[in-house]
Structures are given as C-alpha cells and as structure tokens.
Write the structure tokens for this entry.
Amino acid sequence: MSEPDLPGGPAAVLREEAAKLDAADELRDRREGFVLDDENGERVVYLDGNSLGALPRTVPARVAEVVEREWGRLRIRSWTESGWWTAPERIGDRIAPLVGAAPGQIVVGDSTSVNVLKAVVAALRLAREDNPARTDLLVDATTFPTDGYIAASAARLTGAAVRALPADGIPGSVGPRTAAVLVNHVDYRTGELHDLPGITAAVHEAGAYAVWDLCHSAGALPVGLDEHGVDLAVGCTYKYLNGGPGAPAYLYVRRDLQPRFDSPLPGWNSHADPFGMSHEYEPADGALRGRVGTPDILSMLALEEALTVWDGVDIGAVRAKSLALTDFFLRCVGSYVPAGRVECVTPVEHARRGSQIALRCADAGAVMEELIRRGVVGDFRRPDVLRFGFTPLYTSFADAERAARVLGEVLAGRAA
C-alpha cells in the first residue's frame, strides 16, 4: 500500500480533493461545536454517529448548571421557574423543523420502544374505530428487532395480525383489512432509504394509518412529516441529533389525529388536569396525550442544549453534504481497498440511500476492531457488515478519505 502515498499517487490526489471539498463545505464551521478527540487528545475519525452522536461542546456546562443550580438550589421550584414541566413539548418543537413538522405535534419523552408501542397501538385503535374489519398490521421485514417485538406485542394487545414483508412490497399489499403499517425510514443495517412519500400515500389510499420510525433519518435528511401526511412517527435523539446516551425519544402525532389519539399508556402527565389527581382518566389536548409519567429531566435538558448545534442549519444542506460524503467515501474505498474484499450493500442511488455506508466484509468483526485501534471508529453488525455513519455536521471529507485509506491498509495487511 506504499504506492498510493507517493506524490501524485491516488492517496495524494484524493487527499487534495478532500481538502478542496472541505474548504467549500458550508457546514464546516459546525465541526468545532463537537468534541471529536479521544481520551489521549488524539483526533479520531468518528463514523458511528448513526449509533451515538458526538458530544456538542456546550452540553457539559449546561448539564452542570441544571445539576448545581436548578436541582441543587432551586430544587422543586425548577418545575415551574426553570421550565422543567413544559420541557417535553418545548423540546419537541425544537425537533419539529428537523423532521418537517409544524409546532405542537411532537412530544419528547420515554424511549423509542415505548413510543413505538404508543404509536402502533394508537394507529390500530384508530383503524378499528374507522372499520372493525381492519385487523392487519404490516411491518417491514428488515425492521430493527425491537420494532418487530413491539409490533407483535401491540398485535396481541389489540387482536391484530402481524404480517412482515419487504418495505417496497407494502404499497402492493395494503388493502381493506390493513389497519396500520410500521416502517423504518432508513434500514439500520444496510442504510437503505425507504420511500416514505410513496408508502404513506399507498397506505392512505387503502384507508390505513402509517407509522414511521425515524431513528436513522432524523438529522441526516429531510423527512417531510407534514408534507407527506404521515400519521404517527417516532424517533430517538442520540444518533444524528446528538442528544447523548439514553437521551429521550419523541413521538409525532399529526394535528388532526390528536383528538382521537388513544395511548395504551395513559399516565398522570398526559391527564387534562394532572394535579387534580382524579381516579378517572381524561386526556389532555394536543400532543401532550403522548406523555406518560414524570419526564427524565437531566437527559432531556442535555438534549435541549445539544439541539442548539442545529440553530441556523438548513436540513437540505445536510442532505446534500451527506450524499457528497458517502459518494466520496465509496470512491475512496474503490481506490484503496483490494479488489473483492468488500461489497457495498447500501444502495448507490441517492433516492435510496440514508447517511451510512454498509460494507459486507469477511471477518468484519476483527476488521472493525483493528480500524478502531487505528483511530477510525465505525461499528459491526453480525455476521459480516461494517457500518460507517456519516454525520454531516461534524464529518469531513478528510475523515472519509482517511477512513477508506485505513480500511484498505487493514484489509491488505490481513491478506498478506
């Protein structure tokens, strides 16, 4: 692998191109808003933001303020004086523009799994209310495992029947018995982007309800929830939204459906009069119906601060850079990696690609361990997939070039 490092060699040409692309990048200044060094102060190539986003630099000071002042000194007064009580809907309104939603339709809290249960059961109840004959819940066959588990549980709770099928087969499979569909916007393993507008339109034409999991798309590409008439959606905030490990998830309920939204987890926080302590449940108006119990304030306010990195960012520019980064990375892989050592399982077409590249590779687990040891952090999905997530706010073209070059060196070394 020495030849590419010679002046004028492929590595020199690609590094020069990366430098030019970075210089022209309108998002390049956002990178300084994140902590990207390792514990030794060395800069790493972090391509695992599709699992856990990097730390925004202002979050530690904000968390310290919440702990020391709001909790430490104001204590219970902070529920009102520091705005703790209204945090779920306030932060939901901050997320809304990133997924194409108007204010008042997103509430933050609980985990993605819990919100999937709320959304799917609510969708099934809406469908049954429309027509009791609607009994089928369709789920994309490659869904994230938890979504499948929750879908099966929701079906048991409601008497529905689950059918798993490829996402692109859903439009031709919905019919008069379909109650709801649950689809991941981006496949967690391959990075394939599913057709949210087309699938949603087909589901609506059949009279059913669409529930979308946005975990691998929110913060990486335009979603258009309102524009495409999505009924319900859920997502995590610790990937491309950089909210931190275990950060609370969110639930979107389209405005016109909110009066009919019937959560399977009615809690005192979603009561119309939470401090009335009534034994009879009366749901609050609006997206607040998606709340359950006491919000997890420390992680929620860390998320709120993390979302400030999005101030003034055009999600369209994020998408454009994501596609450019992944295109460039694939070109670099083609230049550096020995022929036949990897196979790209992420669709090449822009319209079908999220913000990650998944490469099938023999001994993928050992290869990823070596990449991480050399300062290129991605992740491994069994049995043979290397995943590289590209977060446009802080991933540079130089990162993409270095990652592909180190991958080539590792694979060449293993072949020797």
